[in-house]
Amino acid sequence: MDSKQRKASTPKERRTALIWCAAAIVVSLVMILALNPFRRTDTPTPAASTGTSASSTPSPSAGTPAASPSATAGDGMFTGDAEAVADQVRALLNAPDGAGIDSMSTLLYRHGHKDLAEASDVYDAIGSQRDAATVRRLARAWYAQALPTAAEARLADLSDSMTGARTAATQIGKLGLDGTDGCKAVPQATRTAERLVKAKSGDYQALTDAQQALTDAESTCAANLDATQLAKVFGTPQGTTTPDATTPDTSGKDAQ
């Protein structure tokens, strides 16, 4: 066995691999939907927002502005009994859910903020059956610390992705892929993200929205490119080679 340790992936390598994976998943889903005779074709009715209370789906940017949360950030957000507060904190940690980017909880975990990612003080108080007023106070104190910390982490991730995003945006223009589904949105999403990075923004919601828009654009674009275009725009995953359309297929010749 080779005793050498495997070289750790760089942020650029991880990003490239994720884009290729996302492209493969999108293509697979499209094929599955196209072949599924039972899929619904009618337009689903959006869920009514009037029946949902603010406590069940709080916005991470609610309360004081996310750009400069104060010690009282979250005032007015955490209401009700201890169980209601637990649900509100959980909703914040799990958002954005199923969006293709890290939720606040995962983001905080990955950047080494375990206690904030778990809202330990809040849930410990609930587990100890502390009174609702204490739980609400701890939730507000948690949010005042978690929000700017998560914003810093989101900014760092977005900053790490900028080199690859700028390269992709440039290549899309050079290769004339602006008309390809999703690809036209990549340069615009890159510019929006770059403005926030250059400004060292502390607005968690704006950073999250920018990362989401960039991820969506890149994934959609990648799913509509062939292997050669994909490699030219987004690079190749670690350990693979760039497809060469001019290389003849010699597979099977040895068996002849």
Topology readout:
Elements: H1 11-35, H2 82-94, H3 104-110, H4 114-118, H5 120-127, H6 132-174, H7 185-198, H8 204-223, H9 227-234
Helix pairs in contact: 1-6, 1-8, 5-6, 6-7, 6-8, 7-8
Structural notes for this entry:
By secondary structure, the chain is mostly helical. The protein has one domain (16-28, 55-237). It is built from nine helices and no strands. It has helices at 11-35, 82-94, 104-110, 114-118, 120-127, 132-174, 185-198, 204-223, 227-234. Helix 1 packs across helix 6. The radius of gyration is 22 Å and the shape is elongated. Residues 1-8, 26-72 and 243-256 have low confidence and may be disordered.
Instruction: Describe the largest sheet.
Output: none
Distance between the termini: 35 Å
Radius of gyration: 22 Å
What is the beta-strand fraction? under 5%
Based on secondary structure, the structural category is mainly alpha
SS elements, strand count? 0
Overall number of domains: 1
Q: Helix amount, in percent?
A: 55-70%
Mean pLDDT over the full residue set: 76
Which parts are unreliable, with pLDDT below 50 for 5 consecutive residues or more? 1-8, 26-72, 243-256
Tally of helical segments: 9
Element order: H for helix, E for strand: HHHHHHHHH
Shape: elongated
